[in-house]
Amino acid sequence: MTIPTFAVVGRPNKGKSSIVATLARDDAVYIDARAGSTREAQSYPMQVDGETLYELVDTPGLQRARSVLDWLVAHCSDAAARPETVKAFLAQHEGDSRYHDECQALRPIVAGAGIIYVVDGSCPYGADYEAEMEILRWSGRPSLALINPIEG
Question: Per the confidence metrics, is the pTM higher than 0.70?
């Protein structure tokens, strides 16, 4: 049986690692108040009585969503091809340091993970959120939003 996997994605410093630590019941998840402390995607299984129920992937924060979305739009002419275009972005930019964080976040999604999209409920909605949500929608993967009120 395949273990359900969920990529926890969103902007930097919005509580993704804290959410992963809580939902995976894992104190080993590195949490830091400084933005950008998660540099590589890391998987954490949620286990009960030795059985893995699901796996969460803690990812770096999305920092260049607008640029990624612009690339996707420029390289896709058919809505049905959007998931393949996301895969093409990942294949083309995998070693590009400008898109390191985006590739780390998209890799588990392209591999089949569901999406838990974390947003800061204390910040007003902005265009950056739109670009992030559109990229995630293009992936074609099931998703849910988790509103995490971060206090300044």
Answer: yes
